[in-house]
TrEMBL record:
It is found in: Mitochondrion. Pfam families: tRNA-synt_2c (PF01411). Residues 1-492 form the Alanyl-transfer RNA synthetases family profile domain. This is Alanine--tRNA ligase.
Amino acid sequence: CGGPGYRGLVGDADVGRVDTAYRVVADHVRALCVCIADGIYPGASGAELVLRRILRRAVRFCSEVLHAPPGLLASLVPAVVEVLGDAYPELTKNAGQVVDIINDNEAAFVSSLERGRRVIERTVQQMEPSTHFPAEVAWSLYGNLGFPLDLIDLMLEEKGISLDSAAFNELVLEDAKRKAGGPQAGEPEHATACLDVHSLARLRGSAVAPTDDSPKYSYALGRHGRYEFSPCQATVLMLYRDQSLQKEAGAGQRCGVILDRTNFYAEQGGQASDRGYMTRLGQQDILFPVESARLCGGYVIHEVTAVETLRAGDRVQLFVDEAQRLACMRNHTAAHLLNFAVRRVLGDGTEQRGSHVTAERLRFDFDTKGPVTVEQLQQVEQVAQDVIRRNEVVHTAEVPLALARRVQGLRAADGGYPDPVRIVSLGVPVESVLTSDSEAAMQTSVELCCGTHLLQTGAVEDLTIVSERQLVKGVSRVIAVTGGQAKQAREVGQCLAVEVDSVSLRMKQRSTSLPEMQNLSKEVGQLTKVVASTAMPQWQRKELQAILKALQRTANTAVKKLELQQAEEKAQGLLAKHCNQPLIIDTVPADSLSILMKVVNQLCDKSPGTSVLLLSPQPSGEVLCACQVSKRCLPVFSAADWAVAVCRRMEGKAGGSAVVAKGSGHARGLQGALTAALEFARSKL
């Protein structure tokens, strides 16, 4: 960087914060390398948002304090790999991807900074003098572009303007409340859901056996094809609350319940935990709700709020929420189908990067060499649906890890798995895929998995990918739904396709009516928003978005052409009326501020020495104002000052530049505004 070497200075002794910058960059690049190699990428929410802020803070220290050239951060990755590679093998394996992601995000941040500066400049130009910078604009810069707040304050301070802090803080509070209540916030991490190390050591020291959770796999297909889950009775071994093991919990107290056995699935392997309830034997009318189950050191912790005193030694009956469990099973089996289908369509080199399964949907991340096309999305869905239609048997078996690793084409064999491991194979018995010369695993889905699955693929019913996006360069994330949700998504997609066809047909008829074309343009805009936000097949969303984008371009061009025609007619009438006077102040009917501005532009183009101000009363009682000042009158005569003086008489607002300006007000001040326009102009000319 060309600066002084690191001296270890802190506080006031660190003049220019150079040593602080060294420490920040070193710390942040380590965090970035380990997180990215482990599958966490800079993003817009949760841990990904934290990582994005870490990266951007490091970039700013590099450029603003160390005065480093672009790319310094990524150039440090090999040093991190050398130091930490032995402890984190993923660093060595994924070093190239880490470099690419850091470089891409740095470039995007620099681009965002430039865009942010332009937004601030434009907003300041349009503001009235002596006003606060709009909180909404600052929030948009912060939330959407990742523009640092201190940088916003610094740039505004340079312009002698301050941020509307009260309004900005309100937006921050609103966002915090929304995240707290929304799905993005994730499940709360309760202190009762995971054992601390001392309690874990005490359990093991007391020879308390780990929870036998094998009953979670005890279910079968009963009559009429319905899943039947076997009952499970257990003994309370210990209760956990306030970070300590206890023998009892009183009514109303939240606690973790440790049992000798359970049929609850504890969250692991990307599958959400079961919910349900437990009852004491002999007291079936008193339900202890189980909110979640988590695995800690071999012990399953059931998160419970006691409705009355619960003690160690109590015998309980466990009841899993069967609908929620079945939905998770459906989506987990669908995730395996999706993994197989993605590899079949995109190639065997495609590797899973992560997944998460809940009762509502499944998320699947995978490597990709480029954007996934519409055709590839359709093919992936088709491959998965073919396996669903064949109603293949889902085979499972526990086998030694060494034996499992010999299976050709086995997915997910490189992670840290227990021994023995559980193999899940769709359509082919596990014994068949284990034979040394078998290639059966290459033709179906075979994975190591501890999750709960359907017994036959037909119960998935349907699978639809409703979202696909690139997390970072080379990694895509898809979200899919199954069963009734998938069917509903397809039906919605078909309905929206019909609406898009209808608009497209009407657009081809090329109406010569400006209001009709404006309505069509608005309809296309509204449809675009609906298509972007509605759960529907992603391949169909992409197709409709491409059509709507072209329609919006056509509509905008047609509206602009019709507005210009209308503006030219009005301008000709006004020129004839005012006979090339150096000043034109008048009222004229116009459907929008856009048309009124075009009339002003036409007048000034046809009569370059003329300054023009036009008012247009609207049916709503509003009056639109547009003006343009001849360049010959600058700098004495300012369009922005002219518009402000006129609109103030109508109790309205205006803004613009020295040459052009626009605004609006109330009709009750129209005559006074016309008088003010003339007086202001005469005082300047």
